[in-house]
Amino acid sequence: MPFLDKLLKEKPRTPAEVVSKLTGAIEALSAARRDEKASEKANESLAKYLGCAKLLLFGDDEHEATKENAVALAQEASRTDLLSLIVKNLDVMEFESRKDAAQIFGALVRIKENDERGPGATYVLAHPEIPTLLFNGYNDPVIALNCGAMLRDCLRDDQIARKVLDGPVFLKFFEKVEVANFEIASDAFSTFKDLLTRHKSVVAAYLQDHYQEFFQAYLQLLRSNNYVVRRQSLKLLGELLLDRSNVKVMLKFVSDVQHLMTMMVLLKDQSRSIQFEAFHVFKVFVANPNKPQPIIDILANNREKLLKYLEDFHTEKEEDEQFKEEKAVIIKTISLLGTPAQPPTPAPAPAEGVPADSTA
């Protein structure tokens, strides 16, 4: 008899029964944290009931999953605090159970009813400590990647994303993407990027309301000593500025002299990949038809150096017609800039004994 058939005959099969048993198993595991024998028994029980939940949610080759069962499981999970229990006890679960629990959590949060917010997402929205706990999971290498995946599942909902953006956790992402552990830093950046690109209107409103603090922190990423952080941050910045939802933010960003100077430094970075990503942000400064005079002055003062540099800039990519055309436009625009206005030369002081000319 296949294992899952045996499991179904021996264990509860309705969504309500599965959630009840699963909740009990997690509570037992939590209570047995310091009791090795009790923890072993609780982990065995947990693995069985996680298997039941996975079968209801995903089915297998012989058992087809139904939306009705999935929705019922999500409803029961929301009524019994199962989602909170999973998050709070992820660290004491065994490796395979932890993977299964994260997968089940994600499915329960994603499930929708008639294209409306489902019970799982509604539960997380009413318990804002859940995204915070998942973010804090990045501090524990054992559960960091599980927590990252679960947090990204939560952020699929626009209202949860809005709460995270407006809450105390978001600005801490700027630290997490630079931690020493490469896997954790990369996962944190994936979550950071998801949060800034998935819900465009929500993000546009956030960037307008928190422009100063956001870009003050973001510029530090562009100056990071970590090559991967600089490259990923530059690429994401280009995506944000060129998104139509962020037009107001883009115009403000490219009117700032310090931002232009940062891009000009990155254009000459030792890494050709970073040079290339910097070009896609630099071109927005040049192409802006309403450049403030200080921006024009910097471009004009550096015109000859910029033209010489851009002439040989990534010539190996000129088979890319779009890049070739953009580069030609930028070169032409810079070449047509007039020299910056010079301050008037003060009139020489009159010689001793000679009265100044007072004629109009």
From TrEMBL:
GO terms for cellular component: cytoplasm. Residues 350-360 have a biased composition (Low complexity). Gene3D superfamilies: Leucine-rich Repeat Variant. One of its GO terms (biological process) is intracellular signal transduction. Pfam families: Mo25. Residues 338-360 are annotated as: Disordered. One of its GO terms (molecular function) is protein serine/threonine kinase activator activity. Belongs to the Mo25 family. This is Uncharacterized protein.
